[in-house]
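Human: For the file, kindly provide a plain-text protein record giving the amino acid sequence and the backbone structure tokens, at your earliest convenience.
Assistant:
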Amino acid sequence: MGLTLALLLVISAVTGVLLALKKEVDIIQPPTQKGVSKDLAEWKSLNELSAIAENALHETYPEQNENSIDRMDARPSKGIVKVLFEEGNWEVQVDAKSGEVKSIEKRYSDWIESLHDGSIISDGFKLISMNFLGIGLLFLIATGFWLWYGPRRIRLKKRNG
């Protein structure tokens, strides 16, 4: 049980550090590009932007022809829409006003996050492993506190006799 907890702690710690650095390290998550306009009234429709992103990914990487959109992340403050695909962690950033494709890159932060929370295996595993990890950490904190506090208490009792 201790080895399992230790393995989960190491995985969680390493992936947690990587996720904390995702905005700083371009290979983990591509930097957010800047678009032409922050005014939503000037933006193309989500339907147009999704078609632009799909075409760009499929033309650049023909092997991704069957890859469909998972979600779209609109960034009004940057004038950009990030289009994320279901397979392979692909991200296409499109200028929301002009429709210009600003970048087509892999986004490893989503994969790292699924490893971090255990959902890479299954949602059931995520639920069990995260509860095991949380309860295990609470146990380690409680026993660590007792190992620190217990001897102090005994010494005080001996002194006060």
Notes: The mean pLDDT is 94. The CA atoms of residues 37 and 99 lie 11 Å apart. The domain at 30-107 is CATH 3.10.450 (Nuclear Transport Factor 2; Chain: A,). The longest strand covers residues 69-75.
